[in-house]
Amino acid sequence: MTLWSGRFVSGPDETLWRFTTDTSDRRLLVDDVTGSLAHVAMLGEVGLLDDDAVVRIKEGLEHVLDEAHAGRFEFRDTDEDIHTAVERRLGELIGDDAGRLHTGRSRNDQIALDLRLYLRRAADHRVEQIQHLVRVLVDQAEEAGDTVVASYTHLQQAQAIPFAHHLLAYAWMLLRDADRFVEARGRIDVSPLGAGASAGSALPLRPDLVAESLGFRGSFENSLDAVSSRDFASEYVFVAVQTMVHLSRLSEELVLWATEEYGWAEYDDSYTTGSSALPHKKNPDIAELARGKAATVIGDLTGLLSLQKGLPLSYNRDLQEDKRAVFHADDVLTTALAALTGMIETARFDPPPPSSWVVALDLAEALVARGVPFRDAHHAVGGLVAALKAEGRDFTDVTAGELEGTHPQLVPEDVDLLDPKGSVEARRSPRGGSFQSVADQIGELRSLL
Ligand code: ARG
């Protein structure tokens, strides 16, 4: 039986049932029961239920909770949604008193509550997972020691940097994502229960008591807003998607680094896959799928926003579709974080040195330090690069004499500048690609974690 059959003469058509019921809310079972326990306690406290009824309903709900935790709760095809399933089971356990649970409540404020409870907890888990990945990146950065690679712009080698500096860039991005989850959590952490179907109730409800017992920082300001707003869900999904986009960029590099052409990384057998056709291959499928799945969660976010854009106040059934997007985006992020963390933790990074060209700016800056205008210095070094390239040579075999011929202010000792590691050692600017900067970042990240 549905929760609303009173004014209906006939039962629901089979096609209506198939179209309108949704089983994706089943994962809200524990949250739904938790919310009901707080609700029934409040009903008792304001005198809407007598003590006996409160005790019986609580015992029944706790039994349902045990079944839920033990994975023994049985759903039926006739359960319209999670709320119906719980009330139906409660009725089986305690009889008619189950009918008192929904006093002063609607599924509209109830579903908003369930989703907020779920996402509040999920946000905490995602923060922990992200912090774990950041820790792994910091460990790998430390492991990288004084290994020097090129930084890239336009995917062209740019300047010499410690490999650790590159890894740590992702640590900072991900730490901001964790921060965003914390901030989104603050806006999720508001109880909508007591808003009822749309405008509250004539009964002496105390939304503040429910909010307090569920550990919310407060309860809703406006009942229409409480049942119809999903900005808290959009924000959560945005943060999940932004995190996936960061993971996708990192994944793209993990894929590149494992190529024969780069040769920067080798991934553990347990985090790679083979080819059914090519016996020699070891494929970075985790990274490729993280990149691919990032596309699907971008779809979740646009879907969720589109869902809300045309809705009049207050609750509309369209909102049932929010869960599909929220759960999919969060599930993808959860598994991507776990898989990539393992893949990076077990990876062996051993990048070869960069090309000699990455010191070109250092040579120009040596001239600038001697008073030469940067534009002139740039031009002179550019000329040397062009001449060397024309001869099929690079900076490694430049002679002191050739340097002096490039610009009168260059001296024979400047050949020492033509070493990528020396270039990193000479770097001064704060938080740039220097060994000191890397040490500072590692220290700061460790204390932030
Ligand atoms: N299944 C609905 C949802 O997910 C719950 C609220 C239904 N409310 C209603 N009046 N039909 O949004």
Order of helices and strands: HHHHHEEHEHEHHEEEHHEHHHHH
Number of domains: 3
By CATH, the superfamily of the largest domain comes out as: Fumarase/aspartase (Central domain)
Report helical residue fraction.
55-70%
Q: Quote the CATH topology of the largest domain.
A: Fumarase C, Chain A, domain 2
Q: How many whole angstroms does the radius of gyration measure? A: 30 Å
Separation of the first and last Cα atoms: 52 Å
Enumerate the spans where pLDDT stays under 50 for 5 or more consecutive residues. none
| Major beta-sheet overview | 2 strands, antiparallel
Basic shape: elongated
The ligands found in this model are: arginine
In spatial order, strands of the major sheet run 1-2
- What is the CATH architecture term of the largest domain? Up-down Bundle
Give the mean pLDDT. Answer: 96
Which structural category fits the helices and strands? mainly alpha
CATH hierarchy class name of the largest domain: Mainly Alpha
Q: How many helix segments?
A: 16
Per DSSP, what share of the residues sits in E-state strands of 2 or more residues?
5-15%
Number of strands: 8
Outline the structure in words.
The chain has 16 helices and 8 strands. With about 450 residues, the protein is mainly alpha-helical. The chain folds into 3 domains: about 100 residues, Orthogonal Bundle (Fumarase C, Chain B, domain 1), CATH 1.10.275; about 190 residues, Up-down Bundle (Fumarase C, Chain A, domain 2); about 80 residues, Ribonucleotide Reductase Protein R1, domain 1 (Orthogonal Bundle), CATH 1.10.40. The strands form 4 sheets. It has a two-stranded antiparallel ribbon. Strand 6 and strand 7 form a beta hairpin. Helix 5 packs antiparallel against helix 16 and helix 9 packs antiparallel against helix 10. The chain is elongated and about 100 Å long. The chain binds arginine.
